[in-house]
Amino acid sequence: MNLKEAYEAMGADCQPLAEALGGEEILAAIVKKIGEDENYGKLEAALAANDVEGAFKAAHAMKGMCLNLGIDMLGKPTAALTDALRERSRNLEAVPALWQEVQESYAKVTEVIKQLD
Hints:
The protein is an all-alpha fold and 117 residues long. The chain has seven helices and no strands.
């Protein structure tokens, strides 16, 4: 699967970002790093430990990475989770459902990325 096909599978368009970065090869190399990023594991561990601050930091980092790469499929649910964690006790009841969305989106995105040429 090439980069354009991967972005289409994730409901996005890679062209503007690829052009801004100097080509699809550069963007593809960056995108492939998502599966290697430690923040998903940090987020999972922080949520399991009820560490709201740690979960917020990891979710915020994931959100930024995904949205900057135009991968809204994962960026938007991660942004929603980040917002819930930012609000601390006022919105923590939403965290389990939002975390489920992030997990599902992460699985889809990483599966697509694994198929990149």
